[in-house]
Amino acid sequence: MRTTPLAIVMLALGMLAMGASRGAPAQTAQAQPWPQTTVKLILPLGPGSATDVTARLYAERLALRWGQPVVVENRPGADSIVAVGAFAASHDDHTLLYSPPGPITVNPALYARLPYDPARDLAPISLGGEVFVTIAVPASLKLTSLTDLVARARHPKVVALGEAGLDHHYDYSPRDAQERGFRTHIAAARESGLPLVIHAREADADVARILEEETRAGAFPAVLHCYTGGRDLAMRAIDLGLSISFTGILTFKKSDDLRAIAAALPPERIMVETDAPYLAPGKLRGKRNEPSYVVETAKVLAQVRGVSFDEIARLTTENFFRLFSKVPRSAVTGA
User: N or C terminus: fewer CB in 10 A for the chain?
Assistant: First the structure.
């Protein structure tokens, strides 16, 4: 069965990861190759992390390929020592460590007290992919230098700014501080040329006002992510050349207004995302969200727009790469 890649906004697009073991899994003496039983992937980070969501994607596909269950066990804590210690103590070749390279490096001050010998017990066996990030400074912190933010955005793995914007639902930060931070990140997007991922919750009028004022000072690329706003904000953002991205909320029973907005937007301005680990699509609601579930959101988007799933997959993928132009296609599609 052919599958069509779907670009996913605001998620790690692959993870620079290494399995590690006392050696690469070897073929058994019998004719049946490795693995002969359940494979366990131990992670040094908690549920919902980039490592977690990519490990679960790999586990799902490896289980189909190997014909054996592949389970993921989260063992966060102690700067990854908990996970690596559990891995080293497993003493079997069906338990693997799935980790970014950083967490398994050794702090010399801790070396004598580690419950394992990095040189003896860890051996890389697989490179999983690459990680790309967006960067932002929370409104609760004072951004000391726009120049510094733009400079950090030049890192080859930084592909966007944000998320930044206004949240009048929680109001964790004073609204004037939120607005200052929002405008600063817009300025950084304008100067760096990287897209800004915009958070807008119960603040449609203020977000629209700021976007229009800032656009008059100079255009900038951006996407309103996890869109839940009204039709007016969506259309004003489209008029400014921005994009709109939808999550599993699009599939919820009471989201008729949102689906009507999704149906009316220009095809070149729509994307899909998960916002994992939250907002799993309708039939999976209540479960921890993960990147593979974005397919369900894409199916609903295709339905409301009256096109095929493959067309929505192609369209949203093209839109993603056009906006997040710093992400190489090969990192996501394997092309």
Answer: N
